[in-house]
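Hello K.,

You asked for the raw outputs rather than the summary table, so here they are, unedited. I folded two proteins back to back in the same session to keep the settings identical. This is the first:
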Amino acid sequence: MQVRETTVPELDPATDLDTTGGGGTTPPPPAPVPRARRAKISWTTRLEIALLAGPALLVFLAFVIFPIVVAGYYGFFSWQGYGPAVDFVGLRNYLTILQDPSFHEALLHNGIIAVLSLVLQGPVAILLALLLNRRLRGQSVIRVLIFVPYVISEVVVGTGWSLMLQTNGALNGLLENIGLGGLAQDWLSNPDLAIWTLMVIITWKYVGFAVILFLAGLQGIPEELTEAAAIDGASFWQIQRSITLPLLGPTLRIWAFLSIIGSLQLFDLVYIIWGQYVSSTAGTSTMVTYMVTNGRNAGSYGYGSAVAVVLFVISLVVALIYQRFVLRRDTEGALTGKGGKRG
């Protein structure tokens, strides 16, 4: 006797209808999902937003946007800083800036400072942060000592270093006293050494900020990951290379962005240590020192305003490019919650 197999039609659990096409009733198309109605913002909420954000917005417009607009306006005039601007020169100021070799040299110095800041401060700050992230005696004191130079005024830092690095200053005197007088140099005026002297000062002052920033990033890395890697036999440096540094990537990218923008706007240390004239001959001039020297000090405020606009445009372009190609995945992950793979 043969047993005849029968196929039991499959039922859709949502509709209890046959979905095998075996003669059952075809399920109806799903009903369209109604679009969520946008919640209306009450006038009370709008008033609260205006009261909270209004003062900050007014300050931003008054001290950021308005000066940029005014500088752009005066950049089209040959203006000495007093009276109405009536001598319209069009784009002549901007063309002069772009054709001036001194501005090209200052722009090159800013680029060198930006690159060297990343190369010098980054590894030093990472090593110090990894060291201070471990339990050791006197950890808090070491953190304070590293961070103190960052909070000291640039005027104090520049004055102290300029006195110490003069030809008859403390550094050359120390070298002579210990029998290394042959190493004494003109640290500030020698064009071959001045840019490196500046980088030592910048690194000494700003590495503390990078260390504190990296320490904050290290605090957000779960200890379970490093402990599991250690149990699996990974060495300390393997853990840092494969776990710590990739997870520290967003903090590193933010620090690099701040360092680059700060390098483009560097002024106070250079102006205090080298002054308006020595900086150009010593090879440490920047775009801002160029602006002050050829603008305010030369009595040509229209030209100085044009330099300020060019500096703003360069900084804005660099910031947008960095945002587009480097910070994009960090910001998208923060806004959408789909950060993806970090590195």
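The second followed immediately with the same parameters:
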Amino acid sequence: MKLRVEEQVFPLAEVFTISRGSRTDARVVVATLSDDVHVGRGECVPYAHYGESVASVIAQIESLQDDLANGLDREALQARLPAGAARNAVDCAFWDLEAKRSGTPVWQLAGLPAPVAEITAFTLSLDSPAMMRDKARQHAARPLLKLKLGGEGDIERLRAVREGAPDSRIIVDANEGWDREAYQRLAPALLELGIDMVEQPLPAADDASLAEIERPLPVCADEACHDRSSLAALTGRYDMINIKLDKTGGLTEALALKREALARGFEVMVGCMVGSSLSMAPALLVAQGAAVVDLDGPLLLARDREPGMRFDAAGIHPASPRLWG
């Protein structure tokens, strides 16, 4: 088994801003596994907030060379690397390679129903109320908008977006930018504006108070939920979890996390980091039937890879086998 790993950079169509900062490109890491006949690929997005960098993730993946020579497979990988971006890229490359070798799509290998298109959110990054109103107007025909919030003026931003997109469903993501008092103050206004849900309003390390207050606006765990080991601490604090393959460490754990979360009574959202269609392809398998789907990464890029995922009025469509799976 041969392993190749490389960084790839995709310029964004516009500056993307959240409560923790801004970016102008998506820096991804692609792992490629080859048996000299078939090739499997997986993409991940290292995330500094979780202590990852492109260099550290590449080093983690490269550390697998000897293990692969000694027969490392996808199952053994789950214990060899921790949940995170590096394992995601290799896990998805294993799935893709298995599909190519067998001539069987990943959804069948995983025992899943045939995937269909899913409506995805489109993200409006953090900006002034006037700019966010203008962006909302540009995208008012989209059925689901996601707003990045997390600072002074959030109510004004929400009112501006609702004015710009009166008919869209709206969810908001505070990216840990609020505190308990901010949630309690803002929740009634968000409900009045028809907001469906808020992601990670409080810092993941300081979210215990969510169990002590009423949550009239459903709360989704993002930074607080990585893999199945996260779930016990989320009970009573959150109503929904956001599954991202870069947090779970790949499709294998993401599918297991979805099953356990649903069994525990959580609703499920499936999201993404800002990456290319190669990141979205496996995530769409997890997103089937999810309460909320947020796989708009390729829509935020100035250019995607070819062939990319297809987006239209029906949502994001399953990947071509030429891309993945």
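The mean pLDDT is 95.

Happy to rerun anything if the numbers look odd on your end.

Regards,
P.
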